[in-house]
Here is the input.
Amino acid sequence: MSPQIYINGKYYSKEDAKISVYDHGLLYGDGVFEGMRTYSGKVFKLDQHIDRLYQSARAILLTIPISKQEMTDAVNNTVKLSGLADSYIRLVVTRGAGSLGLDPNRTSNPQVIIIVDLIALYDRKFYEEGLKIITASTIRNHPAALSPRIKSLNYLNNIMAKIEGLQAGCMEAIMLNHKGEVAECTGDNIFIVKKGRLLTPPTDAGILEGITRNAILELAGELNIPASESTLTRHDLLVADECFLTGSAAEVIPVVDIDSRPIGDGHVGQTTRLLMSEFKKMVTR
Ligand code: PXG
Here is the structure.
């Protein structure tokens, strides 16, 4: 039962896993990644994460040196070696070591890294009582500058908004897009419930199309909860009946306060509770 790290086909302990300081992943945030979870030893939605990783890589013209099947086998094997039943997996592919210059043609050997460890983003009490969050003034990357649909190693946009949240005493922050519409949080997608309907911003709002987000939309269908992807403004959030966030790391976490205003009655909503408990069942199906 210990963290296991795969680098290019070999396995290392946490202490021994190392890559070059000339890696363009480190020097320029030039690479892509995924974050996933295992439940009872099985990776949740592994195929979708692998597909998204290869799409992110394609979007930045990075050729992953192994096939999707080899990547899938490597993830499963690293999980097995860790001995952890409920773990968090960070899958990273960097452009590899190069020269001290931007030119990706001067890099060689993309690095494939799989870290299997534990994660606890939020204290248990926030799942029971709900988070208080703020709207950040940092907007989400303009899609024409760096598409938020690419899960790249360049997370400074999100980190700047996260710092705003932390400075305001909040664990998460809402990011608007360049049009002033609600996009997502720094590491989570956002949902509201209004008059029994579940609403979440569409992918063209400039968001990462979260795999947990899509699982929640799938669950809503099964539970006959009307759901849609809709453009949302900050106003829509402030007058919502309920609000919650989704992410592989965070899972489903309620929000009870935005910008010091209570959402609904200021307590975790009924639909949120239902989706939280159904999601728990879904991950071990
Ligand atoms: N939006 C963004 C910007 C994300 O980074 C999600 C949504 C949720 O997507 P999934 O597919 O996981 O449902 C993410 C992913 C962290 C952390 O430390 C969070 C993510 C990735 C890496 C680190 O909070 N979230």
Summary: The chain is about 30% helix and 25% strand. The chain has a mean pLDDT of 97. Residues 35, 121, 158, 184, 187-189, 208, 210-213, 246-249 surround PXG (CB under 6 Å). Helices lie at 24-28, 46-59, 68-82, 124-129, 156-167, 211-222, 234-238, 270-282.
